[in-house]
Structures are given as C-alpha cells and as structure tokens.
Design goal:
Layout lengths: L5 E5 L6 E6 L10 H13 L17 E2 L12 E2 L37 H14 L3 H6 L12 E3 L9 H10 L3 H7 L3 E2 L11 E2 L5 E4 L4 H7 L6 E4 L5 H4 L9 E4 H5 L1 H5 L12 H5 L2 H6 L18 H19 L5 H18 L4 H7 L1
Parallel strand pairs: 1-5, 5-10, 8-9, 8-10
Antiparallel strand pairs: 1-2, 3-4, 6-7
Family: Belongs to the universal ribosomal protein uL4 family.
GO molecular function, one term: structural constituent of ribosome
InterPro entries: Ribosomal_uL4, Ribosomal_uL4_dom_sf, Ribosomal_uL4_euk/arch
Length: about 350
C-alpha cells in the first residue's frame, strides 16, 4: 500500500498545525480484509459465556410405555390419574415437555485460539485502513470537516482533565458532524429492544494514546461514541468493530511514533519493483540462470497403475522396436516393386475387341 512520508501534527488547544512527524511503517501494510474478519470473529468468541440446559430437564416425571395392543404409540406415558397430565407422552424429544435431542453442554468448545502472527497482521491491516479516507467514509464516519487523515495531535492531549476540553479538541479537528452522529442512538428492531438495552449507540472516533495517560483517558471516556485505547495494547475489536476496516482514529504524537515498536508490522514484500518481467529478463538474472534443457524427458512407467494401461504401453513399445528393426526401402527395391506392379496390372487388363474377333 502506498503511503505518504510525513503526517501533520495539530494543536490540542487551537485549530492549527504545529508540526509534522514521520508516517510509521505499519501504515504500509496490506489491507487483509479476510484476515481481519477471521481474527475478529475468533476474538469475539472468546467473550462468550457457557450456557446449557439442565441434564434432568424433560425427564423429571414418572412415565413408562403402555406396550402394544392399545392402538397407541409405544412412547412412554405419564403414570397416575385425575389430571390431564396422566397418560400424556413424555421423555421423547417430539413430546411436549419432553427431553431435548443433543442437549447443549457447558463443555462445548466456546473459545478459539488465534495464531500470534495472524493477530499481528490483522492489527497492522486495521491500522493501515485508518489512513485510507474512502474506507473511513465508507464505514460511516463524518470526516468532511477533517483536515487530514490520520489525525495526530500533540502530546498535551494526554494531560487533558476536563471533558469539555476534550470535546473542544475534537471540534477543532473538524469532527463536529461526527460527534452529532454518534450522539443520536437508534432504537433496536424487534425483540432486540428487550435484550441488553433498547437502543443502538453508533461507534465514533477512537482516541489512541499512551497507557500512562490516565488523565486523558478520563477526559474522553464520557463522550458518547468515543472510545480510548492504549498504543501498548491495541485491540482489534476496537480498531475494526464488526470486522470492518476504516475506524476513525485520533493519535497522540508519542503514541503515533510508537506504533511500529508495539505493533510489530508484518514483513513487507521482498520485491522493490512490481515489474517482474523486467527483472527476469535483466542481464544479472539471466547470467545466474541455467541453460534450458533441450529434448523431452524419458517417459517412465508409473507403478501400481491399471493393468490395461501397462499392457497397452508395453505393446506400443514392442511395436516401436519392431518398426525400428525393419530395413529401409532402397531405390532399387522401389523400382522392382513398381515394375512388378505394372506387369500384374497389364496381365489383368481386358484384351482389345479386335484381338477377340481375330481369334474367333
């Protein structure tokens, strides 16, 4: 991925540019959307809580089969009388209040292990996507007022203590429309209103700073839709919510410069030039290559194959050997054969009509 060499650094109190810094190498990582979705899915599974039905559910009753001869099924039926429950089918999974087929167990494999290199590559891809404006806008963030992406602010952002100062900083960066968007929660559809909150809160910008910036974390954490993360322990669930690339991020300068140290970006491509044809045809490469092998390699018979194929191959080889041993036709032999053919054809030719009349 192509990236620019430097990034602007903005003031934490005023709406102006105060310097620049070098773009970290992690922003040149490839955008592996498939890898990000895979790692995000498995990381989300690690937060699941075990659930299962009781091992006695459906079997807490006394029932036995009535046997045959009653024109009824042989399913177990509840003992007793004087109630509607007596005589009803029980235990089977097709019965009302019966047991469950393959009941859920708490020892199910709920969690997933994720390869370390896959996690690192996924985080590198998620960070690289935060610098791509089309991806950030496609995710729904309102960045039309932002001067530059990614947004880097001087280190005084980590010493903010008031939430009103944090909101003012975001407004100075041109994120006013974004704060308005995340401040309006939407009602969930259907029965989701009765499950863990009735409204859906949009996800806004992610503030990334050092882990030691405790005051700055407190200043931003009460703003609706805004999340805070430490550069020393970046989480893919925050960098790519729902496995979607393009999270809007605001970095402190020190955290931005420490990205390569803590993210361990994936190795870049070994090819400095994408023109592979020119590389292969260059004189240096051609001198190191071996000369092409002339002729076709000898065909070998594969063992343990079909007997019919072996029989055909052997017959074909014998025929080739016989044909190679036959003497080649010499010019004298050809001449004699042509003369013999002419004599035979002359003898078989019909006699002229005049000769037949003369004989009579």
């Amino acid at each position: 991925m192509v990236m620019r060499p430097v990034v602007s650094v903005f003031s934490a109190t005023e709406e102006k540019r105060v310097g620049s810094t070098v773009m970290p190498r992690v922003f040149g990582s490839s955008l592996r959307n498939d890898l990000v979705k895979y790692v995000h899915m498995n990381m989300s599974k690690n937060r699941r809580q075990a659930y299962a039905v009781s091992k006695n559910s459906g079997y807490q009753t006394s029932a036995a089969s009535w046997g045959t001869g009653r024109a009824l099924s042989r399913v177990p039926r509840v003992h007793g009388g004087g109630t509607h429950r007596a005589g009803q089918a029980a235990y089977a999974n097709f019965c009302r209040a019966g047991g469950m087929f393959a009941p859920t167990r708490v020892w199910r494999r709920w969690h997933r292990r994720i390869n370390l290199k896959e996690r690192r590559q996924a985080i590198a891809a998620a960070l690289a996507s935060t610098a791509v404006v089309p991806l950030v806008m496609a995710r729904g963030h309102r960045i039309e007022g932002a001067t530059e992406i990614p947004l880097v602010v001087e280190d005084s952002i980590e010493t903010l203590t008031k939430t009103k100062d944090a909101v003012k900083l975001l407004l100075n960066l041109g994120l006013g429309p974004e704060l308005e968007r995340v401040a309006k929660p939407r009602a969930k559809a259907g029965r989701g209103k009765g499950r863990k909150g009735s409204k859906r809160h949009p996800i806004g910008p992610l503030i990334i700073m050092r882990a030691s910036a405790i005051e700055g974390r407190r200043a931003f954490r009460n703003i609706p839709g805004v999340q805070v993360a430490a550069v020393e322990r970046l989480n893919l669930l925050k960098l790519a919510p729902a496995g979607t690339l393009g999270r809007l991020c605001v970095f402190s300068k020190s955290a931005f410069e420490a990205l390569d140290e803590h993210t361990k970006p994936s190795t870049s491509s070994m090819l400095a030039s994408a023109n592979v044809t020119a590389l292969v045809n260059s004189s240096n490469v051609q001198l190191a290559l071996k000369a092409p092998i002339k002729g076709t390699p000898k065909a070998t018979i594969k063992r343990h194959c079909n007997k019919r194929i072996l029989k055909f191959v052997r017959h074909h080889l014998k025929k080739q050997q016989k044909d190679s041993k036959k003497p080649s036709a010499t010019p004298a032999l050809k001449k004699a054969s042509k003369a013999f053919y002419k004599n035979v054809m002359a003898a078989l030719a019909p006699a002229p009509v005049e000769d037949v009349v003369a004989e009579e």
